[in-house]
Amino acid sequence: MIAYLARRVLYAIPILIGVNLMTFALFFFINSPDDMARMQLGQKRVTPEAVQKWKEERGYDKPTLFNAGARCERPLFGWSAAPKLCQEKLTDTIFFEKSASMFWFDFGHADDGRDIAREIKLRMGPSLAVTIPSFLIGLAAFLTFALILAFFRATYVDFLGVVLCVAAMSISVFFYIIGGQWLISKLWHLVPISGFGYGLDAWRFVVLPVALAVLAGAGGSTRLYRTLFLEEIGKDYVRTARAKGLSEARVLSRHVLHNGLIPILTGVVVAIPTLFIGSLVFESFFGIPGLGSYTIEAIRSQDFLVVRAMVFLGAVLYIVGLILTDISYTLVDPRVRLQ
Amino acid sequence: MMGFVRACLLFSPALLAACSYPWNDPYPASQDQANIFYSSFRERPKHLDPVQSYSDNEYQLIGNIYTPPLQYHYLKRPYDLMPFTADRIPQLTYYDKNDRPLPDKADSKNIAYSVYEIRITPGFKYQPHPAFATNADGRPTYLKLGPEDLRDVYELRDFKHTGTRELTADDYVYQIKRLAHPRLHSPIFGLMSEYIIGLGDYAEKLKAAAKELPPGGYLDLSQYELPGATAVDRYTYRIKVKGKYPQFLYWLAMPFFAPIPAEVDRFYSQPGMAEKNLTLDWYPVGAGPYMLTVNDPNRQMVLERNPNFPGEPYPGEGEPGDEAAGLLKDAGKRMPFIDKWVLSLEKEAIPNWNKFLQGYYDVSSISSDNFDQVIQMSGAGEPQLTPAMERQGIRLQTSIAPTIGYTGFNMLDTVVGGDSERARKLRQAISIAIDEEESISIFLNGRGIAAQGPIPPGIFGYKEGEAGINHYMYDWVNAAPQRKSIDYAKKLLEEAGYPDGIESASGTPLIINFDTSAVGPEAKASMDWLIRQFQKINLQLVVRPTDYNRFQDKMRKGTEQMYSWGWNADYPDPENFLFLFYSPQGKVKFSGENASNYSNSEFDRLFERMREMDNGPERQALVDQMVEILRRDAPWVWGLYPKDYSLVHQWLYNRKPAKLAHNGLKYQRVDPQLRESLQRKWNPPIGWPLLVVAALLALGVLPAIIVYRRRERSGALPPAHQAT
Description:
Chain A has helices spanning 2-30, 33-41, 48-58, 87-91, 94-99, 116-151, 156-170, 173-187, 202-233, 236-243, 248-269, 271-274, 280-286, 291-300, 304-332. Chain A is mainly α. Chain A starts with a helix and ends in a 7-residue tail after the last helix. Chain B is of the alpha+beta class. In chain B, the strands form eight sheets. In chain B, strands 14, 17, 18, 19, 22, 23, 24 and 25 form an eight-stranded mixed β-sheet that branches. The longest helix of chain B has 26 residues, at 688-713.
């Protein structure tokens, strides 16, 4: 298993280089360093000299990927036979200077001078305050509903549940948010419409986004889990369990749920690390100062250093999620071995 | 106590109705009945350093923190300059090239330079700040910090000791020198180096000095003299300006000319500070009525009263109508009135609006989505609040912004540009066809006035009524301007060589390209409308939407044909609008602000004379001539002057729209008791729906339980149950 994990980690390196390259290419395809400078310097009375100065100070005056004019001092990979190819031609570039440090998690400073790592650390808490309860409550609720529907399969309860699930899936998340804010906060005055508080005060602000996030995800997840459980219910071992005289509740909770978890884990475990990234939509509507809104702001303000840090972090967390999923298979299914 | 009440009632719907505290209050209970002003912000400020900051959203904060020598009168209109930290409006002396003083009315040709002597009122003190902290022996506590000292420091509040000192003339001089700092980006450095004597050379000198320093090392500006800015004594300093530049006084009311103490600059320049984001750009240090105590732009910004601010009397006079509006009730009382200003981040319009209606924000703007809910037009066509808003005691405030939004022609373009009669008539025809009044009505709910020229109302040079209309585009009919007919526009088009929109010479239809950065559904509607305006005179318009970066690129290169843009005034002077047509400001040739690249030697000559004149009939005559030239040449379709609408709750007093005065917080007053009582009245928690939901859930679960039990007791499963 350790060899397998080591191999997966090594596979991750080219993937992350690729992600970095893609982010870099996409960003600079749309924005030039001049655009970034103008965005930071404002709209009025921005001179070309000021733009040039801004770029020089931040190293954006260098070539993007290959510096043909760099003075060679160190041969590339120690290969002295090709003196025209040297390290400086690759390292004295915007890409290398802004992206290489990602691999040792040195995120550097945003264009406005703020420490990106510290910002991420500060914003992770508010993001998790919403995503973790949403995830846990949602998972518990969806599994329960799906088991109930499976129990009442082919009855009016099941039919009604599926209809409700399809209806819930068909509604946009924005409707849930705007409707929820209107009903719960504006009409019934039960919680603040938006904002965030730290410590014990936080619950007042997260209870509504969490409830709405659970509600918004209920339709799709419940239907999926119901289908998976129904598939399991028809198998021989379930019939055997029933024949042994186990109650239906016990059959569902001990056998069907346990075996149905394997496909469910694929979607669930991979999502756990990405909870740190937060939710773009919910954070924006509820004024939660998390990482989702940080990413959106960075894209709006064309702050490449923050964008590339958040994309890199997202990619790393996703890879971690996939590895965790593989590990979780071995825990729930003894037949699975990681080699 | 309130926290406990909230907590105990959290999941107890039965008790909800008994509790009257507003549960949806987004603020902590400790702020109940506090003397706080609440509002929101949408965009985080980029810069708070007064030498770099230049945006409205930044000025609304630092305008209340910093103390430039002058300020605008809060109530008088047109805007009137008055002293802030200066003891009077600065004395101005003109000199000739031989350094001999000239009389006040001297011909500007003879004036080699002007000297502004500014005397500061003693007694202004800086906010408490660690840069001023001293040890028992009087030496600065935090001006020689090493990496070890900063190990546990992440915010300014992590420094235990603070101090203060009196504001001096040296601090003002220091800030003027900072305009040329090689590591700072002052947007007005280019402009000021044309005026402040020696500022350009000073920048070069500092640049060379900075190269000798280690990266980020402290560049002590006090070591380098700037001939254009010198301190005469502890409270007096002089600024030398080339020639005559009357608009310079307006700049003295902006944060660019606020004082910065050298020790603060030194404090923030210490190694490790910038890495921890401890910079003047993040933690401003001023002597104004307020200081920034929380800078968390992810969530909240808080300004609190500066305990060292000596206070200032509320103005005793204003413009007609101010007394009736209750704006003079606090005349003579010491300001500031409000203890704290809490600004919360609101990115979305809906929560922002609902929180205002619930009483959690004291002021609000009106979005297009809410306009019909808020405003209705009276029989006379005047905007007034709907009965629902009036019942809440909300007040509506409207004002014309010193701003112009316009559609421009690129004067370098071979079709629409140039100064030929053909191109002029084409531009005039297009200007008539674009029905700005209709656009304002459709897209802005009437919040604007169709512009007759480049100068908005409230700025010297603007003329009202028949005398102020653009005769190339309007007729004066029934005491109001009436846009000339489409037939007249078609006639102009024909005279320009495009009968029915067909170019006579080639026989091909005339196609005009319009570049815009406006994208999205709302922009699509306005672009479709614009295309229809061109179709009225049989012209084809091709809209080329693009992102703002590419749009700016096109503008810089001059590849656009038509475009739309806007300008917010820096100060209330016609020069600040007319310079947008001055040749040396051409966007393509000089990277200036003349986006249409308009060039007219007669206009330039008049502009150079006008900008050096004091307001008066002679200046008005020159402005009239210049505006007439512009109207004839039509480099812009004279878009609109936007009208700002804002809503104010009944517990907020002394609020008056003042777009150019950025230090309005100190004048305003709140009645926290009234606010809280209304918040309670407007936001009673309604718990019964939760009971209903719980009951419905129980009703739904009960039959399920019964079915389950019945099924468990039955002998065998029915066959249908096994199908999936």
